[in-house]
Amino acid sequence: MPINIPEQLPARHILEKENIFLMEDERAVTQDIRPLNILILNLMPEKEKTERQLLRLLSNSPLQVNVEFLHTSTYESKNISKSHLSQFYKTFHEIKDKRYDGMIITGAPIEQLDFEDVAYWEELKEIMDWTKTNVTSVLHICWGAQAALYHHYGINKHPLHEKLSGVFQHRMMHPTVKLVRGMDDVFLAPHSRYTGVSEEEIENHDQLTLLSSSKNAGPLMVISNDEKHVMITGHIEYESTTLAEEYERDVAKGLNVEIPTGYFPEDDPDQPPLNRWRSQAYLLFSNWLNYYVYQETPYEWGSESLWSI
């Protein structure tokens, strides 16, 4: 089934060329099933790339999905035009009286800052508290996962000796949990960050379950026992070339960074990387939408409308 996104969103043209099933508003309103309404708080600097990555993964399910984008009002992104934000994004003040079936909170390249030093931390805390009553399930990615672990469960991040960048092997620890149903016992996933979280703290927390971890990259998937929060510390949504683009950017800045681990064929940056995590990413997002959003969300959220159509 399709995703319903604004007709002028730049990601639409790229996704249509990939034969992703997209739907116009006129056709969407004729569907008999109620669509899922997903809110995406996009904290990444290159917002259009992140939009494309997430929309692609959300499209691969039998469910009709309406997507709405959110940006912070207490910090203005420098890498996206104001016209793009005003046309396709809303602020928390504009949507706080609505309820959503699911929400995604993305990562942000600010993990070396203490949470309290982040310009929009107070706003993000307000949004995360709001999700407890207004969102059925929240998927947190990378720094967004670290923020959720810290805010909701008191687990802080810690600095790494060097940037963790590459594609790492992970082991599945609880293969019967619905989120990872059908995923391989051992699988690959990308990471790109300067901080990590403690596997021991997660395993010892009585409200959390560690679903998968890596000997070299640490915890990857964590779920709260009430199934309200899913935390993905890596970037399983990344496209094939995203780590290469980040590596080239860091080198151009003069940063002392290593070649992403296990990413380029023969560790040669001149060779195009192969995507070896795509199927796991599609399955993870499909499982989240089905088991934690669609199967759990009420058909009607009281008397309030979720979506204005």
UniProtKB/TrEMBL annotation:
UniProt KW Amino-acid biosynthesis keyword: yes
GO terms, biological process: L-methionine biosynthetic process from homoserine via O-succinyl-L-homoserine and cystathionine
NCBIfam families, A to Z: metA
Class of this enzyme: transferase
Entries under Pfam families matching the protein: HTS
Site for Important for acyl-CoA specificity, residues: E111
Main location: cytoplasm
Name of this protein: Homoserine O-acetyltransferase
InterPro entries registered for this protein in UniProt: Class_I_gatase-like, HST_MetA, MetA_family
UniProt catalytic activity: L-homoserine + acetyl-CoA = O-acetyl-L-homoserine + CoA
Subcellular location: Cytoplasm
Pathway it works in: Amino-acid biosynthesis; L-methionine biosynthesis via de novo pathway; O-acetyl-L-homoserine from L-homoserine: step 1/1
Annotated site location: Important for substrate specificity: S192
Catalytic residues (positions): C142, H235, E237
Family the entry assigns: Belongs to the MetA family.
GO molecular function, one term: homoserine O-acetyltransferase activity
GO CC terms: cytoplasm
Function of the protein: Transfers an acetyl group from acetyl-CoA to L-homoserine, forming acetyl-L-homoserine.
